[in-house]
Amino acid sequence: MTAEIRWGVVGPGRIAENLVKDFAVVDGARAVAVASRSIDRAQAFAGRHGIDRAYGSYAEILADPDVDVLYVATPHPQHHDIALAALRAGKALLVEKAFTATTAGAEEVVAVARQTGVFVMEAMWTRFQPAVVELRELVAGGAIGEVRSVQADLGVAREYDPADRLFDLALGGGALLDLGVYVASFAQMLLGTPERVVAAGSLFPSGADAEASLLFDYGDGRTATLMTSLRNALPGQARVFGTTGWIDVLPRFHHPTTIVLHRAGAEPETITRETIGAGYAHELIEVTECVRAGRTESAVMPLADTLAVQSLLGQAAEQLGVRHAEDPAALPGDGAPPRE
Ligand SMILES: NC(=O)c1ccc[n+]([C@@H]2O[C@H](COP(=O)([O-])OP(=O)(O)OC[C@H]3O[C@@H](n4cnc5c(N)ncnc54)[C@H](OP(=O)(O)O)[C@@H]3O)[C@@H](O)[C@H]2O)c1
After folding, report:
1. Which of 10, 49, 80, 96 most suits a substitution to test ligand 1, by most atoms within 8 Å of the C-beta?
2. Which residue has its alpha carbon closest to ligand 1 atom 4?
């Protein structure tokens, strides 16, 4: 392993376009290669971002010996196949949220990561935002007593378009996997994994979930009440309630800069923590440092938490009647025909 950690980008779509700019503010890491299903898109992306090597198939970047870590930014059902092949090729991974489309898919990726001893982490960037790190430190220091409840919402108004990945089940469509993953992961970070989840919501004609309210029941009075929607905008607010106060996480809570601490008998305290770059740099730093140190997972975004969240989302989807599946042909160039 060289001192510089060399990254490859798989699936140069909207999020990859934004995230890759944050390499400029990460020491000791560089994006050196990009792979698309189309060589034209790969070359255009490489040209825009000063990336050395462009590949017209995902299989080619897996075979590049001068790439240490892959950032997988394909739609959710197209993570599993690519992740399995990458782990077997010895490539460390940062996999976009939601980690996979199904609980079984996530379990398989984690099992192969553990067998091969190769690093993998879900790109849940919220956990690395400096304001969220501060929130965790306040809670751990007892600033609001014992955490009893979490509220969070995240929603956007999107016009229904069955061809858009947000609504197409073959591309992991629906509010739960795209936005619900943030509210579920936030609650799981603070309260742990609940005994049961209760979901109510509605579906689009495609069968993808349009909106959902979730109750996490911890069996001892602790709860999380969560909302997500692709039908209507929601403020993106979160609140963490403890026995001696609460903390507001100001919108949008999944990449916040400001939290407000409310303690019984004290004036509210506003705490601001700016992000580095557009906020993706923090997870890039974490993965870069973990890979350099030879770790197999992140202590901030552990695989057990990713599996727990994926299972909660899966249970909610099942209650709503949403049927997700992994795409077994997500790795064109690996014997399967390319999909455009
Ligand atoms: N962290 C965040 O803030 C954030 C924000 C948005 C999205 N995300 C996550 O990032 C992932 C991608 O989201 P996105 O909005 O960037 O999606 P997108 O714009 O549709 O890009 C996804 C890319 O994946 C590739 N791809 C591979 N198989 C595909 C298939 N069967 N259909 C369509 N595209 C396919 C395509 O690139 P090529 O064909 O060129 O290879 C496409 O450009 C999702 O898991 C999403 O949840 C994260």
Report:
1. 96
2. 15
Burial class from Cβ neighbours inside 10 Å (0-12, 13-18, 19+) for residue 114 reads middle
Q: Are residues 199 and 251 in the same domain?
A: yes
Dump pLDDT digits (tens) for 49-83: 999 999 999 999 999 999 999 999 999 999 999 99
CA distance 131 to 143: 15
Residue 187 and residue 258 in one domain? yes
Let me know if residue 332 belongs to a domain.
Answer: no
Task: Choose between 332 and 270: higher pLDDT.
Answer: 270
DSSP letter assigned to residue 248: E
Q: Are 291 and 7 in contact (CB under 8 A)?
A: no
C-alpha 59 chain-centroid distance: 23
> Is the separation of the CB atoms in 61 and 35 below 8 Å?
yes
pLDDT for 58 equals 98
Tens digits of residue pLDDT in 151-161 = 999 999 999 99
Alpha-carbon gap, residue 272 to 258, rounded angstroms: 4
Domain that holds residue 114: 5-126+281-310
What atom in ligand 1 is closest to the CA of residue 17? 16
For 78-128, the pLDDT digits (tens) are 999 999 999 999 999 999 999 999 999 999 999 999 999 999 999 999 999
- State the total domains in the chain: 2
